[in-house]
Amino acid sequence: MQKRPKKKEDNEKVHDELIHEEEAHVAEPDEEVENPETSENPDEKIAELNDRFLRLYSEFDNYRKRTIKERIDLSKTASAEIITDLLPVLDDFERAIRAFPDDGTMNPSLREGILLIYNKFLNILTQKGLVQMKTIGEPFDTDFHEAITNIPAPSPDLKGKVVDEIEKGYLLNGKVIRYAKVVVGS
């Protein structure tokens, strides 16, 4: 005896029955699972939520304070790069002023004009937080000074102290932006 092939309709019928059985199974309500949150005391739940709220509020407040501080620090140090680039110009002004002859052979109005521009330039940089380091006669400190060379100290009290300054050092808002290049007495 030969098996006859199932008809397409038979396959669809079986398929529909299986789908109905699955839907019936899914639609049946399961046993209620007790929610662990509902078993807690309402006072405990309120205390827990209040604690979470306070922690979240504190975390946000710390974030706000930190970003304000970072913004202030950024605005203070944002000008550091441009001020560092302007320091050689300040050095050139100082060299030009030292190069003026004191015998009066140079036009005095030219000298006064250059001094006026230098002082205005220095005042602007000072307003932005630039401070020149005091070095000569101070004890040598690697946090502020860069030793170019050691020489025999001219007097015993200058041993380990800065004897001469080759290049001035500067602080910007309390941070070193250029170390002073100095000669140290030994």
Walk me through what this model shows.
By secondary structure, the protein is of the alpha+beta class. Helices cover 52% and strands 16% of the residues. It has four helices and six strands, in the order ααααββββββ. α3 (80-99) runs antiparallel to α4. It starts with 7 loop residues before the first helix and ends with a strand. Mean pLDDT is 81; it is low at 26-34.
Quaternary organisation of the protein chains: single chain
Radius of gyration: 41 Å
Enumerate the strands of the largest sheet in spatial order, edge to edge or round the barrel: 1-4-5
Low-confidence stretches: 26-34
Major β-sheet, in short?
A: 3 strands, antiparallel
Mean pLDDT: 81
Shape: elongated
As a percent range, the share of helical residues equals 40-55%
Secondary structure category:
alpha+beta
**Continuous helix count:** 4
Termini gap:
119 Å
The proportion of residues in beta strands is: 15-25%
For the secondary structure, the number of strands is: 6
The SSE string, one letter per element, is HHHHEEEEEE
Describe how the helices and strands are arranged.
Layout lengths: L7 H20 L14 H36 L2 H20 L8 H20 L2 E3 L12 E7 L10 E6 L2 E3 L2 E4 L1 E6 L1
Parallel strand pairs: 2-6
Antiparallel strand pairs: 1-4, 3-6, 4-5
